[in-house]
User: Fold Methyltransferase from Zostera marina.
Amino acid sequence: MTTITMASFMLTGSDNLSLTKRMKSPNGPGFMSSSSSVIHGRNINIPTLGLKFPKKTPKSIVRCSSSSRPASQLRFIQHKKEAFWFYRFLSIVYDHVINPGHWTEDMRDDALEPADLYSRKLKVVDVGGGTGFTTLGIVKHVDPENVTILDQSPHQLEKAKEKDELKKCTIIEGDAEDLPFSTDYCDRYISAGSIEYWPDPQRGIREAYRVLRFGGRACLIGPVYPTFWLSRFFADVWMLFPKEEEYIDWFKKAGFHDVQLKRIGPKWYRGVRRHGLIMGCSVSGVKRHHGDSPLQLGPKEEDVEKPVNPFSFALRFVLGTIASIYYVLVPIYMWIKDQIIPKGMPI
Assistant:
């Protein structure tokens, strides 16, 4: 495994914090280079990442990872074939096991707020929509007949088809890195809990830009990279946990403007990213020009038609599934700590 190094960043903030700061980024991969990138927080501490804060005594110091861990690093369940079989079984209990700890209705509604679903008539695509849990939040604001759910897992989509609120939605199988929609197709692109399985996240975000109309907005919701060593280990074994600056960098490179990142978390979350969150941030951006993304990419990283070694595949699948159990236990552990440790103190 890649050697992980650690460095400290100074955090500053207070309860009910709401910050908007222009970012100045250090030179190097993984950091955003535009002053228009914004991080919005609520009840959290914001890492400096090159920001200039007023001269105040910081209230806390938290260790954050600064490793050069590549997003392309191989995880056991990240590519499409592993994800397909992983959800073949997980789809049975997804809404009852994963969501209660990591992806609640309150979190979903909070994470969708940057999507600006202001009209029932907006045309929306929900990429990696799975069982339709996120789509249920979308159809609160948009007419179901204007919403398309796309996922590569027929087993997940079968669960979505069973939900009465989604009966009028268009439900199709498809690839997030090669969307079956025309350029300038929709008003809103939304994807929640999908990027962690993309072999090439930059390609998927480029596709989000392409299919949006001029003035359209993308809202991508996903996990955040942990800082606790054991959580980092299982994150790297299991699937992709991007860093916050990576999300922003991918959006900017795809051509998005007004890129914003909003931290989200379950009720036990107190602004500490130590263990990582399967749904930890909501990133949004606006398409300011018609047509395709200015970013040009080469061939796709993963050829799903290429034969695989059955033994190797089975071993990867088993190890990745074992690693995923750790993140089922994390919310239970954190919920217990939340009940014991006095409010106002980080956990």
In short: The first helix runs from residue 80 to 90. The chain has a mean pLDDT of 76. The CA atoms of residues 31 and 245 lie 5 Å apart.
